[in-house]
Design a protein that fits this description.
Two copies of one chain form a homodimer.
Chain A lengths: L22 H12 L3 H8 L4 H10 L2 H11 L5 H6 L2 H10 L2 H10 L2 H9 L3 H10 L2 H11 L6 H4 L6 E3 L4 H10 L9 E5 L5 E6 H5 L18 E2 L4 H11 L3 E5 L5 E6 H19 L12 H27 L2 H6 L2 H29 L8 H31 L2 H31 L4 H28 L2
Parallel strand pairs in A: 1-2, 4-5
Antiparallel strand pairs in A: 2-3, 5-6
Helix pairs in contact in A: 1-2, 8-10, 14-15, 15-21, 16-21, 18-19, 18-20, 18-21, 19-20, 20-21
Chain lengths: 464, 464
């Protein structure tokens, strides 16, 4: 029997070759593009899924990308467009010949069309809208009228509903007789006479139940309705938290207007994760590997600029102790350790807090307890390392008092780090600022400045 | 028409009150527990979903948690158990009275039972297995025989299949006549006579198609089969990449043995994200907000210890220039800036690379180009800040040469940071080590040590 211990029993490890683009395939494709062999290219691309072709296009350089698309021409599937990341997608749209683009766009579902349109500049939006049929165009424009990042943009308008009083038999007959069921649906939404969703029935359950049973009897217990103006982040959270496969969307009057399915929610969830992770490191969250040098540079600068200011502030603090450092150079040698340990501990607390805020695990109900815990952990770990570092300092510079000073400074800085690392993101979150975006600077500035100040200050008082 | 610009048009922002535990509700629940009012407690808990009750249990302190569970008693739903995070779940299992636990476990689906069991210690595993019916116990033991973190553990054994030559009519009749369809299923898997999956048909499409049409005609184009020993990380990647709702699992002989559904894949995906994010900050990935002070302290220590060693190494480098710092204290004041900027730039590159490796966007096909880009970006941003910092240094200490020295040191360190930040995770990944886990130390040690070395070294040569 395998236990929960990670080292017991056999354990799988990730196979990097599964699903990653095969380097040989990519090389063969680029070669076919080089020698302009359309048949070979089509043959190589044929077994690839749209998502993989999108990855391929993202990973090759812009010059090869253009040539590949021009050679591939009419084989270009609309689905590839919806899989491409924003930057590359804009580029590809400009490269595609107008009729191939038109064909590709007509392939797409309504929610993918909206997703495509919302990132484009106006002239390109007009071009694409012009290509759609009237009904599709109106639907797309309606979707674009909803606020960006809202449920209205994510949803598909095609929804399968049934009156709440129907039986299984009536529902099945209705579905079987229906001409235009959506491509993807997993539930029938039960509605009242005013089109308000009451509950939903999964197709699986429907299939396995006798005709005379009322739909209400097999309706799902848990029922979540998404308001049309809800932020997509909240939508994605709900899908994740409640394990939804699809959820009905209602307008301000509570009437059913569409449905959001799990695949769209997952894309949002994915974006949110990436956003948090990149923002914590100060990287603009619309960054991508295919950005040019200039774009990448521009996207990294702001954070670095803020950190430069922060570093200069720390240096200003150090300069207050110029005379002391001059007297005892050991201070200059040891001071980065206190600041650095504080920074690391602060980053640990910060990351935990930012993640917990995103998953709504850190709330008013436990924030006090978590802050208390972080203070205690800071003290505990601080003491632990204070002993180590104090001993090192003592032995290195043959000065017991120096050891005591650096040990004490470390404990204090690590307590501060634990505190700031939790309080700063919580406060920013309360103020409506994304904690992932701004906390890092506040926390590391605090630990650096305090680290230097406490160590050098204590040293100047005690030793000199 | 709203454009892709984030500032144009109205924009939604996250509503922290949506789906988060209402503080008043939590307070009322704790009060009911305090005065031991079971009816009130049941009334307050009734409208909450299992996932939210799990969150509640995770957020209150252990003492209240025990009292709440004891008071709630038989109302305790098995689903809550599967929603709880590992640490709290073990605690809850110990607190629940044996018959309530037995009842709760019998509520669960087979894959949730396995999920529950695999994290437990052996005596507790035995206790739970003892509670199950024979068929369920055997199924659970079979699942546990697969390697941890493999598809075999994730899958549910109940799968709906049909012979590949059937028509829609035959499939529908089969489903309608079936007694024991699974709780959740979205597709019918088409199999050949040797039980090898050929394709699958979504229930939605089935419902809308005439009886005489062969199933093969409405089968999905894209078809992904999961080998039973595949790592769950690869499974989750496939679900995300190809927007799967469910996927059949096959054994070594290619025979259909189960199916994995999107909700299980999403849990894995969520864990992977959290793992990467926490690991980058040096926090053990099984950490949680409900850990005690001692546990949290223990889980943060290793990374801090490694960083202490790294910081001491940097100090050793500084100490080589003790004489120079003694001569020119400005060096001590300015040196942390070079190291810190290098660390920040390195962390930016590192985070981008780790994320891209996880999403398989950084592969052999583009790694050379990305490294080149990082070097150029390091140089560009380095030059930019070198000018700023050089000017600051020059003016602050009235020394043009000092300005040049610090500017040059900064450029070099930022180029090194960009390089290390990308190369280190890629190399670790190739060696089969999780880049999120180990890269941080290597990269920041490099930028610290090199930062101090280059700046102080250059200064000692040029200025002194």
């Amino acid at each position: 029997m395998t236990t929960g211990d990670d080292t017991a029993g056999t354990e799988q490890s990730r196979d990097d070759d599964a699903y990653a683009l095969d380097r040989k395939t990519v090389a063969a494709i680029l070669y076919a593009v080089d020698i302009e062999d359309r048949d070979k290219l089509t043959e190589l691309m044929e077994p690839l899924y749209a998502a993989d072709i999108a990855d391929l296009l993202e990973q090759i350089n812009p010059y090869d990308r253009t040539r590949l698309i021009r050679l591939y021409d009419r084989e270009f599937d609309g689905e590839i467009l919806s899989e491409l990341e924003e930057g590359v997608r804009e580029e590809v749209i400009r490269v595609l010949s107008p009729d191939v683009l038109a064909e590709a766009v007509r392939d797409l579902d309504s929610d993918d069309v909206v997703d495509l349109l919302e990132d484009l500049d106006e002239p390109e939006q007009k071009a694409i809208l012009g290509v759609l049929e009237d009904a599709e165009r109106v639907a797309a424009q309606k979707a674009l009228s909803y606020p960006e990042n809202s449920a209205g943009r994510l949803m598909q308008r095609e929804v399968v509903m049934a009156p709440e009083h129907w039986t299984v038999g009536q529902a099945i007959d209705f579905l079987r007789a229906s001409d235009d069921l959506p491509e993807q649906f997993y539930h029938i939404i039960l509605v009242d006479p005013r089109l308000k969703p009451i509950s939903y029935v999964s197709l699986g359950k429907l299939m396995g139940t006798r005709r005379e049973v009322p739909l209400k009897d097999i309706a799902e217990e848990d029922f979540h309705v998404i308001p049309i103006d809800q932020d997509e982040e909240d939508v994605a959270y709900a899908f994740n938290q409640y394990h939804l496969i699809s959820a009905p969307v209602v307008d301000q009057d509570g009437r059913l207007v569409g449905v959001i399915t799990i695949d769209d929610a997952m894309i949002v969830l994915d974006e949110e994760y990436e956003e948090d992770m990149l923002r914590l490191a100060g990287v603009s969250d619309d960054s991508s590997l295919s950005d040019s040098v200039a774009t990448t540079s521009r996207r990294r600068l702001p954070w670095l600029a803020v950190n430069l200011i922060s570093a200069i502030c720390a240096s200003l603090v150090i300069s207050q102790f110029e005379a002391e450092i001059d007297q005892l150079v050991a201070l200059a040698i040891l001071m980065p350790i206190v600041a650095s340990m504080g920074g690391n501990a602060g980053t640990q607390s910060l990351t935990v807090a930012v993640r917990a805020l995103a998953t709504r695990d850190l709330t008013g109900s436990n924030v006090a307890r978590v802050i208390r815990r972080e203070l205690m952990v800071g003290m505990l770990n601080g003491l632990c390392f204070a002993i180590v570092l104090g001993t090192v300092g003592m032995m290195w510079f043959a000065s017991p008092m120096l050891g005591v000073v650096i040990g004490s400074a470390l404990v204090v800085n690590m307590i501060i780090a634990g505190f700031a690392g939790t309080v700063v993101p919580v406060v920013l979150d309360r103020l409506g600022v994304d904690p992932a975006l701004a906390s890092g600077t506040f926390v590391t500035t605090t630990t650096d400045v305090m680290g230097f100040f406490i160590f050098l200050g204590l040293a100047s008082v005690v030793l000199l």
